[in-house]
Amino acid sequence: MEKATVTIPGDTIGASYHLDVLRFSGNDRNAPKAYLQAALHANELPGVAALHYLIPMLRKAEAEGRLPGEITIVPKANPIGGAQYLFHEHAGRFSLASRINFNRDFPVPGAGGSRARVAMDAPVAAEKRLKSLLLDLAEGHDIVLDLHCDDEGLSYLYVPAPLWPHMRDLAACLRSGGVIVWGEASDAAFEEAALLQIADIHDSTADWPHKAISTVELRGRADVAPETAAHDAEGLYRFLVARGVVRDPMVPAPGDWKGVAEPIENVEMMRAPASGTLLYHVRPGDVVTAGDRLVTIVTAPGEEGGTVEVTAPQDGLILTRRVHRVTSLGDDLLKLVGSRRSADATSGTLEA
Ligand SMILES: [Zn+2]
């Protein structure tokens, strides 16, 4: 394994950032290549913890000559977000400079000159140069996994439609609690840009069964623990073995996966109809029926009429819920995956 550190000049006087890139060269040029990154949303650490356990497994495989595929790993993909502390709170989702979500606004191939990639010495904001750099690093890999997490949630996957159901093996390896399949995205998340980098989404000749691209949501932000990290590392390792990136005769095949896989339009993104204190009646993994009470928002504590109830618009699985217990009007509350299209379905990603 080789480690390189890229310096990203900052936008302010005296500031610069450092991005570590780990590379395993592989010993078979024809083997599939894998790229993994974590903490693009810099406050989402389950992926970093999983890589902490996965990397030694890969180093062992390399030392034993069992690593045919090239692997590139960026364990902390967002040093700009990593450095954003505000009043002792870490703010890793949005850029404080531009207010743009760190997982949006990637330069999308084919989207015209305005979304072109930029070089590290280009006179544009550091976050734009970082996004171009990450796509450069991911280019040429057959497998691209972007490790994220939700607020509180099951382990689940976002998978582009052309790659489903070929990617059931990843869901099986990670024992995913659900899969959200997306078709037409328009928010230029890393996953979308990486997909378009491999092939046009409408290209019927693309070798989709041998590709894998996913935003991997490894539960919730507080689910950073030795047990879950080791579990996720083993799952990722099993997947890399299944796809031929790593060789390990001791690892069994992924097996089948029988979970909830639905198009993104079937996700009910429940939003708060009032501000107040959140009393959740459900947690991720619960199965609900239409009309079930999901959340009580306390608007006037103890008073008659001092609550607003949020109920399930259709039967489904509770995939996630927010980690905070205060809400503003219109803020996201939870994701419910149903079997029919949501009345307010949007394409693309679900939250800001
Ligand atoms: Zn994220």
Can you offer a commentary on this structure?
The protein has 352 residues and is α+β, with helices and mostly antiparallel strands. It contains six helices and 20 strands. Helix 1 crosses helix 6 and helix 4 packs antiparallel against helix 6. 43% of the residues are buried. The model has no long low-confidence stretch (mean pLDDT 95). Bound molecules: zinc ion. The site of zinc ion has 4 residues, from loops.
Counted beta strands = 20
Largest sheet: 9 strands, mixed
| Number of helical elements | 6
Q: How much helix, percentage-wise, in residues? A: 10-25%
Calculate the terminal CA-CA distance, rounded to whole Å. Answer: 37 Å
Q: Strand percentage, roughly? A: 25-35%
* Spatial strand order of the main sheet: 1-2-4-3-7-11-9-10-12
Radius of gyration: 21 Å
Q: What characteristic shape results from the CA principal axes?
A: globular
Helix and strand succession?
Answer: EEEHEHEEHEEEHEHEHEEEEEEEEE
User: What is the mean pLDDT?
Assistant: 95
What ligand molecules are bound, each kind once?
zinc ion
